[in-house]
Amino acid sequence: MNTVGSIGTLLVSTLGTIYLMAILLRFLLQLSRADFYNPITQMIVRFTDPGVLLFRRFIPGIRGIDLSSLVYAILFQCAAMYALIFMSGYSFPNFGLILTWGLAGILNFILNIYFWGMLISIIASFIAPFSGHPALVLVRQLTEPVMAPFRRILPAMGGLDLSPIFVFLAIQIIRITLVLPVGANPAFVLGM
Q1: Which of 2, 113, 148, 186 holds its CA 20 to 30 A away from the CA of 176?
Q2: Is the dihedral of CA 92, 19, 16, 173 positive or negative?
Q3: How confident is the model at residue 17 (pLDDT cuts 50, 70, 90)?
Q4: Any idea where the domains of the chain sit in the sequence?
Q5: Nearest Cα to Cα of residue 137 among 120, 150, 152, 153
């Protein structure tokens, strides 16, 4: 790979990862019913509106789930993988393999968002438990629907919340069973 290809790969993977994260955050924040008027949510919506609104014309939402942003994220992942493969000088694999890698990459990216969101939420609960900072409020709103089922199952342990441990275990089990067997090439899949 030449210098131009290396710079192109760096730019596509970095900027593509940031944009894909914004698309997935939009999907997950809408799924978790986060505050739409949070300034960070507003920024994410404005940043991703052009592509999502284009897909929303053709793909309706189902029961409050914005399928247009999810389909947009999958297609963006596949397009970015094609661009990275092209810049690396490899021959293109068939679309089925690209789509499988893309779906595995999207699932892995969502798991990473929840992993880091949970970690931020845990640290913030020790450092600033009653903070009203928009970023921390958004992280809590994002992770609460994932932790709530585990909180219902586990009894209260004298002020200790053990549900994040089981969420981390669930994330790793999903990653081991659904993402790793696909064998996606991390050099081409965003978020891997």
Answers
A1: 148
A2: negative
A3: very high
A4: 3-182
A5: 120
Q: Which pLDDT score, from 0 to 100, does residue 187 have?
A: 65
In contact, 184 and 101? CB cutoff 8 Å: yes
pTM of the model: 0.89
CA distance 75 to 71: 6
pLDDT of residue 115: 95
Q: The tokens 């942003």 sit on which residue?
A: 69
Asked if 189 and 18 touch (Cβ cutoff 8 Å), the reply is no
**In 3-state terms, the chain is what percent helix, strand and coil (to 5)?**
75, 0, 25
Q: What does the alpha-carbon distance between residue 111 and residue 121 come to, in Å, rounded to a whole number? A: 15
Instruction: Supply 167's token pair.
Output: 């969420």
Structure tokens at 79: 């397009």
Q: Does residue 17 contact residue 190 with C-beta atoms inside 8 Å?
A: yes
Report CA-CA distances (Å) from 73 to 40, 68, 77: 19, 9, 6
Residues composing the chain: 192
